[in-house]
């Protein structure tokens, strides 16, 4: 806005020297001895308009764009340079549109954009901070529900699960969900809940499962099924002569999950078959059987204790936030 | 601070971009030079704007300099999009990110729905967030400084590169509009044809434009101007030099000029009497690059018997008017814009 002010003062001095546009034009016309009527006829304007122009009575005339045009045409008709006359008029105009005049020059203002660039930088920083916070929140709130929903269709009905469904039933519930992918027998036999005092037998069962021979497997499965149905107290009454030699043969690589709180768990074996899937409750204890290595997803790592052959496995190292996703090969662990 | 709205006058001859608060930030010829890759048949843009215009008619075999706009509308969609992309990027050179401005594009009032849609999609494809269309005469009138919102008729003649628009405007709307496909390009063609017919010599588009700018006139004036021209003699097949004067060019331009005059007369005939009286009282406003043709206003004045004035800086009127229209859009003064 300072620019127009300076030009205005320049123009003012010019006016002082040469007079107002109307006076300049009248002087030119009288110098050429031309009548107002003739001018009016040549410019196709009425006599009153020409007189108003010469008297600088611009308020009687239409908008400035027309006055500028009339002055230019008038000056040209008189053979004068229209520019000083139009400039003199623009300087007189109190409400002259500096915006319009400044826009008549092609201008490039890189500094005009620098403000915008700073705005962009600030905007970018805000976005980065927001994204970081969102990521932190995402990880700290545990397994995202959508992913959990993908693990099992039951995740939506976790409310009903917590209403006193037994762990075994839980395993049964998990089985239908896995039926599309795996044989029901397999998932049945592999996810078994055993009371702590049944460990010796379970150890035998799992070690029996280790050899890939088909008859042993079926035997183990039947054993496992029986284990489920037989009350815990009766289990120790079935001692077996086999466990000791087998246990010596293969070192103890049993993978046990113990829960001190509610947690979602999904365990798959090497073939991708579901070994264990569902919501575990406080006090639950699960033994993982199947073809290692296993792929585990533990929703609440803090409330889960994993041990491989009685040795505790550090879940915290694998957990991101509170969700642990990792694969585990019992034979490879120490 | 974040405002980077653009008003684009996507013309046949020149493309202008106006940013409010900054003025006209780009004024370049609507020309794109394309190289045809020998392997694979791909195309790459070699140059756009002023640089490409220098190449017009002077390109090697694998490069073509083309004008993607013809008669005010898109003739080559892909190239137009590339050109717009380049221009939009150029005016936002210093921005960190890919610009995504609101864009207002001026369209000839005679353009069809298909042509408008092409322009809209082309601007959107070039990175515009929102695209508005405005009819050129309204934009030109606003840019010239006319009070288009008043209940008073004003006539605008916008002579562009490909089209000329004659319109009577009142209360932010078009009362009568006529678009004729005659413009600066037609003048150039007329000069090329005249020279070929009368001198047996072939000249190029660029030379014809130079002749028009230097000695072209629309009305017989007192001074006769001359220009030296070089072209290829059709009989001998070798370049020859000759001199042309303004009277010859006036003669050459008679036909296209008559078409514009005819359109103006038709508009005056069709205008409702009240608005016609307003026009007669105040005069006709000329905008567009074509109005820079010497004595064009005199021609219209003599033909119609009405005062004719040339707007200040007629080349940029449309782009500036579009910019002001965008500001009005922010001020909720709707009704100026056109749908597809």
Please, could you describe this protein's structure?
Chain A: One of its GO terms (molecular function) is DNA binding. Chain A: The chain crosses the membrane at residues 117-138. The complex is a heterodimer of chains A (334) and B (340). Among the domains of chain A are: 13-95, 434 Repressor (Amino-terminal Domain) (Orthogonal Bundle), CATH 1.10.260.40; 255-328, Immunoglobulin-like (Sandwich). Chain A is 51% helix and 14% strand. Chain A has helices at residues 2-18, 21-31, 36-43, 47-54, 64-77, 82-92, 98-103, 110-140, 145-151, 158-161, 167-178, 184-190, 199-209, 214-229, 243-249, and strands at residues 191-193, 255-259, 263-268, 274-280, 285-288, 294-298, 304-308, 311-313, 319-320, 323-328. In chain A, the strands form two sheets. Chain A has a five-stranded antiparallel beta sheet. Chain A has a five-stranded antiparallel beta sheet with strand order 4-3-6-10-9. Residues 1-17, 98-115, 144-239 and 243-248 of chain A have low confidence and may be disordered. In chain B, a hairpin with a 3-residue loop joins β1 and β2 (14-19). In chain B, 54% of the residues are buried. In chain B, α2 (77-91) packs across α3 (113-125), α4 (136-144) crosses α11 (317-330) and α5 packs across α6 (205-215). Chain B has 340 residues and is of the alpha+beta class. Chain B has helices at 50-55, 77-91, 113-125, 136-144, 184-199, 205-215, 246-252, 254-270, 273-282, 296-304, 317-330, and strands at residues 6-10, 14-19, 23-29, 32-36, 43-48, 63-66, 69-70, 73-74, 102-107, 130-135, 154-159, 164-170, 173-180, 201-202, 226-233, 239-245, 284-287, 308-310, 337-338. The model of chain B has no long low-confidence stretch (mean pLDDT 89). Chain A binds chain B through residues 43-45, 62-66, 68-70, 72-73, 97, 100-110, 112-117, 119-121, 124, and chain B through 1-2, 4, 18-19, 21-27, 92-97, 144-147, 281-283, 285, 297, 301, 305-313, 316, 320, 323.
């Amino acid at each position: 806005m300072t620019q127009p002010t300076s030009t205005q003062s320049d123009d003012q001095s010019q006016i002082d020297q040469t007079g107002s546009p109307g006076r300049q034009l009248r002087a030119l016309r009288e110098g050429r001895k031309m009548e107002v009527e003739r001018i009016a006829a040549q410019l196709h304007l009425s006599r009153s308009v020409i007189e108003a122009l010469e008297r600088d009575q611009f308020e009687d005339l239409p908008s400035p764009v027309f006055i500028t045009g009339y002055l230019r045409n008038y000056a040209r008709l008189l053979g004068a340079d229209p520019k000083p006359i139009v400039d003199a008029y623009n300087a007189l105009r109190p409400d002259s549109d500096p915006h319009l005049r400044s826009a008549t020059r092609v201008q490039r203002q890189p500094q005009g954009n620098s403000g915008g660039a700073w705005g962009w930088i600030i905007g970018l920083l805000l976005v980065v901070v927001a994204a970081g916070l969102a990521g932190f929140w995402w990880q700290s709130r545990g397994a995202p529900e959508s992913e959990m929903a993908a693990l099992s269709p039951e995740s939506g009905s976790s409310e009903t699960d917590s209403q006193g469904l037994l762990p075994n039933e839980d395993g049964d519930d998990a089985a239908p969900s896995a039926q599309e992918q795996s044989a029901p027998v397999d998932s049945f036999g592999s996810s078994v809940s055993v009371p702590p005092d049944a460990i010796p037998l379970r150890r035998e069962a799992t070690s029996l499962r280790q050899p890939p021979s088909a008859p042993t497997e079926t035997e183990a499965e039947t054993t496992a099924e029986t284990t489920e149905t037989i009350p815990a107290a009766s289990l120790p009454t079935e001692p077996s002569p086999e466990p000791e030699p087998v246990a010596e043969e293969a070192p103890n690589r049993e993978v046990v999950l113990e829960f001190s709180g509610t947690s979602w768990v999904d365990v798959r074996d090497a073939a991708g078959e579901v070994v264990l899937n569902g919501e575990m409750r406080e006090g639950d204890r699960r033994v993982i059987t199947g073809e290692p290595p296993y792929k585990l997803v533990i929703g609440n790592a803090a409330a889960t204790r994993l041990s491989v052959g009685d040795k505790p496995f550090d879940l915290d190292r694998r957990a991101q936030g509170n969700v642990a996703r990792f694969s585990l090969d019992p034979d490879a662990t120490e | 601070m974040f405002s980077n709205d653009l008003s684009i006058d996507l013309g046949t001859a020149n493309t202008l971009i106006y940013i409010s608060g900054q003025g006209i930030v780009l004024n370049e010829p609507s020309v794109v030079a394309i190289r045809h890759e020998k392997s694979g048949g791909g195309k790459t843009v070699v140059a756009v704007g002023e640089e490409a215009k220098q190449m017009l008619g002077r390109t090697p075999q694998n490069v073509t300099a083309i004008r993607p706009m013809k008669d005010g509308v898109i003739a080559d969609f892909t190239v137009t999009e590339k050109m717009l992309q380049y221009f939009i990027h150029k005016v936002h050179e210093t921005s960190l990110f890919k610009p995504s401005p609101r864009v207002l594009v001026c369209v000839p009032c005679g353009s069809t729905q298909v042509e408008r849609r092409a322009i809209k999609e082309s601007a959107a494809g070039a990175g515009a967030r929102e695209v508005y269309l405005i009819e050129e005469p309204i934009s030109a009138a606003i840019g010239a400084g006319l009070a288009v919102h008043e209940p008073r008729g004003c006539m605008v003649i916008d002579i562009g590169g490909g089209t000329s628009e004659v319109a009577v405007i009142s209360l932010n709307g078009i009362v009568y509009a006529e678009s004729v496909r005659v413009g600066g390009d037609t003048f150039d063609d007329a000069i090329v044809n005249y020279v070929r017919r009368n001198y047996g010599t072939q000249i190029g588009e660029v030379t014809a434009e130079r002749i028009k700018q230097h000695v072209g006139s629309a009305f017989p004036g007192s001074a006769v101007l001359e220009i030296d021209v070089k072209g290829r003699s059709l009989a001998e097949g070798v370049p020859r030099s000759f001199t042309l004067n303004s009277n010859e060019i006036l003669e050459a331009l008679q036909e296209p000029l008559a078409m514009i005059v005819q359109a103006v007369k038709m508009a005056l005939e069709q205008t409702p009497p009240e608005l016609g009286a307003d026009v007669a009282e105040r005069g006709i406003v000329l905008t567009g690059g074509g109005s820079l043709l010497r004595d064009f206003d005199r021609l219209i004045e003599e033909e119609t018997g009405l005062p004719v004035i040339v707007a200040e800086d007629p080349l940029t009127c449309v782009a500036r008017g579009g910019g002001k229209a965008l500001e009005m859009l922010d001020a909720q003064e709707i009704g100026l814009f056109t749908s597809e």
